Amino acid sequence: MPAQRETYSVEIAGLHRELPLFEVAPGVRIAVLNILGDTELVQACAAALAKRLSTLEYDILATAEAKSIPLAHALSVETRKPYVVLRKVYKPYMGVALSAETLSITTGQPQMLFLDEKDQHLLRGSRVVLLDDVISTGSTLAGMQRLMEKAGAQVVGEAAVFTEGDRRNWNHIIALGHLPVFTAPQGD
């Protein structure tokens, strides 16, 4: 049986969760939000974000694969706005896809985002809200922004369950909460 992992307690959308801490670089740990399979949390966050987004005029939601897909779906149901998913792997059935590179803090590797040919017409001329579960470095968000520009869409808002790291970087993000980055004290 694995050792008990240290956690970070959060209250979000009226719910309590213990987020496990994982090291993503030497001496740097993050509290990992994994909403996959947590229907109660996904629904609560979607309802709370729908209220926060109610003052924005937008046509469509866009998110990156994979953990935020259930949130995009639930928020789509709440707001009656369609959503598109920017994929991380190109498949031949995606046709002439648009692409942009990102660097995720959880993978530490460059990744690509692809906008399926079938979704490009939905975005052209649309006002879009970009959605993610956690915005940490902003790399995925920047990749999504580049894809929206290539698709001819206007980003009118950016939303997440949590922002992470230096809070001052994320004042423009519509978020339900903020997570710290945990760093080990430097030795003498």
Describe this structure in words.
This protein is of the alpha/beta class and 188 residues long. The protein has helices spanning 39-53, 69-79, 117-123, 139-151, and strands at 7-12, 15-25, 28-31, 60-64, 83-86, 98-103, 110-115, 127-135, 154-164, 174-179, 181-183. Strands 5-4-8-9-10 form a 5-stranded parallel sheet, sandwiched between helices. A 4-stranded antiparallel sheet has the order 1-2-3-11, with helices on one face. A two-stranded antiparallel ribbon has the order 6-7. It starts with 6 loop residues before the first strand and ends in a 5-residue tail after the last strand.
What's the arrangement of secondary structure elements?
Layout: E1 7-12, E2 15-25, E3 28-31, H1 39-53, E4 60-64, H2 69-79, E5 83-86, E6 98-103, E7 110-115, H3 117-123, E8 127-135, H4 139-151, E9 154-164, E10 174-179, E11 181-183
Parallel strand pairs: 4-5, 4-8, 8-9, 9-10
Antiparallel strand pairs: 1-2, 2-3, 3-11, 6-7
Helix pairs in contact: 1-2
Largest sheet: 5 strands, parallel
List the helices and strands in order. EEEHEHEEEHEHEEE
Mean pLDDT: 91
* Fraction of helical residues: 10-25%
Radius of gyration over C-alpha positions, nearest whole angstrom: 17 Å
Class computed from helices, strands and strand pairing = alpha/beta
Low-confidence stretches: none
Give the overall silhouette: globular
Tell me the strand percentage band.
Answer: 35-45%
CATH architecture: 3-Layer(aba) Sandwich
CATH topology: Rossmann fold
* Oligomer state of the chains in this structure: single chain
Q: Kindly, what is the distance between the CA atoms of the first and last residues, rounded to a whole number of angstroms?
A: 36 Å
- Strand arrangement within the widest β-sheet reads 5-4-8-9-10
